[in-house]
Amino acid sequence: MVNPTLLCPICGETYQATEFNFNCPEGCDSLPETQYDRYRTTEHEGIWRYLPWLPVEKPNNYKKTPLFIENREFNRMVGKDVVIAFHGYHPEIGADLDTCTFKEIEAVCSLRYAAEQNSDLAMASVGNTANAFLRHSHLESINTYIFVPEKTHEDLFAVEKSDNARLIVIKDASYSDAQEIASRFCEREDVSYDGGGKNIARRDSLSTLAYQYQEKYNQMPDHYFQPIGSGTGAIAFYTGSKRLKQNKITDKTPRIHIAQNEPFTPVVDAWNKKTRNLEQVDYNPLDRTYAKVLTNKNPLYSIRGGLYDILKETKGSATTATKKEAEKAGQKFKEIFNIDLYPAAEVGLAALMKTDLRGKILLNITGAGRQKLRQETKAETPEPDYIIEKGDSLNVIE
C-alpha cells in the first residue's frame, strides 16, 4: 500500500493522504497535488506504464488506453490542426473502451487505490462514472455502491455488470442529491466516498494522457480542449503537463480550454466575468441539458488549484455550445469517421469549432461508440439493486 505525499497549493504544507481523506490538515480549500519521484516508465501495459506517477503500489489487470487520431479531412472540417484523444469503442481502429468514455480510466485506478486501502467505495454519477464502475468493479475484491438519479438510469449500460457493484437509483433526484446521499452513505464503517475530482487516484490516472501524448509526439500540444462536468479531466491534463515540465521532459505548458452545454454554463459564465465565484443554479439541470453528464453543480472551479487558477495561468478559455450546435458537430464527425459521439463529446467539438485557436490542439473526445457497442455486444441497462426516495433510510442497502 502506498501512502501518497500531498502538497497544498495554498499553504505549502506537505502531508500524507489518509485513505480517501485528501484535505489539507490546515483546513485550506484546495486541490492538493501528489508528490512523486522523478519521471520513469515501467514495462506494465496501459496506464500502469506510468505506475511511478500513480498513487498505488501495484497494477491490476486493466490494460487499455485512449487512442490518438489524426485525420486531414477532420482538420479541414474544423479549420484547425487537431490531434484527437479518442476515448470510446470502435475496434476497427483499435479503440476498445467498453464503457465508451474516459471515466473508465479513472475508475480502474480509483478501484485499485480503494483495494489497497482495504475500503469499499461509494460514488454518485449521472452516467459515465456509473457505467465505468458497474463494468470494472470486478477487477478488485471490494464492494462498490453507485448512486444515480432516476432520470439518468436509462442512460446506463454494461456489457457485463460486476457482481460486487451495487446500483442504487434515487427517485426525483438531481446529481447534487445523488452526491449528498452517497456521501451520507459513507458514514457507515469501511465505506469511503470516492470524492470525484478531489480523489487523487482519479486525477492522477487522467494525467497519464499527458504522458502518453508526450511519449508519442515528443512535445506537448499548444492547446488542450475538453467539455467539462466537474473539470477533473482538464485539471488532470494540466497537472500532468506541469509534472513533465518540472522534470524537464518538456518546456511547454498547454493552454487549457473548456466547454459547457447551454443553458447550464456556470463555469463559462463565471470565467467570462473574470470571477472565481460561481452563481448558484436554482433548477435541476438534468431537466434542461442535452449533455447530462456536464451538469455538475459543484465543479472544481473556485477551489485553489482548480479550473479558475488553471485557466488564468494558461491564458485559457471557456466556451458554450447549444444542443443544435452539438448535434450538428456530432453528425459531421460521424460522416468522417462513421462513429457516434456522446452528447458531451459533441459539445466539446462544437465549442472547438467556434473557438479561434492557432497551433497544435489536443481535443479530448470524452465518449463515443455506444451505438456500435450495443450492436456488437450484450450491453444492456442493468436493473437497480435498490430504488430509494431522497428521504429514505440508507440502512436497507447491503
Q: Label the overall shape.
A: globular
Strand order of the largest sheet: 4-5-15-12-13-14
> Helical percent range?
25-40%
Give the number of helices.
Answer: 11
Could you tell me the CATH topology label of the largest domain. Rossmann fold
Q: Please tally the β strands and state the result.
A: 16
Report the structural category.
Answer: alpha/beta
CATH architecture of the largest domain: 3-Layer(aba) Sandwich
- The separation of the N and C termini measures 27 Å
What is the radius of gyration? Answer: 20 Å
Order of helices and strands: EEEEHEEEHEHEEHEHEHEHHEHHEHE
Q: Please identify the top-level CATH class of the largest domain.
A: Alpha Beta
> Which regions contain 5 or more consecutive residues with pLDDT less than 50?
none
Q: Give the biggest beta sheet.
A: 6 strands, mixed
Question: Which band does the percent of strand residues land in?
Answer: 15-25%
Short description:
The protein has 398 residues and is α/β, with parallel strands linked by helices.
Notes on the protein architecture:
It is a single chain. The chain is α/β, with parallel strands linked by helices and 398 residues long. It has 2 domains: 67-100 and 202-375, Rossmann fold; 102-198 and 380-396, Rossmann fold (3-Layer(aba) Sandwich), CATH 3.40.50. It is built from 11 helices and 16 strands. The protein has helices spanning 72-78, 103-116, 128-136, 175-185, 200-217, 232-246, 266-272, 307-314, 323-337, 343-354, 370-376; strands at 5-7, 14-16, 33-35, 67-69, 81-86, 89-90, 95-96, 120-124, 144-149, 165-170, 191-193, 223-227, 255-261, 317-321, 360-365, 386-388. A 6-stranded mixed β-sheet has the order 4-5-15-12-13-14, with helices on both faces. Strands 11-8-9-10-16 form a 5-stranded parallel β-sheet, sandwiched between helices. It has a 3-stranded antiparallel β-sheet with strand order 2-1-3, with no helix packed on it. Helix 6 (232-246) links the parallel strand 12 (223-227) and strand 13 (255-261). Helix 2 (103-116) crosses helix 3.
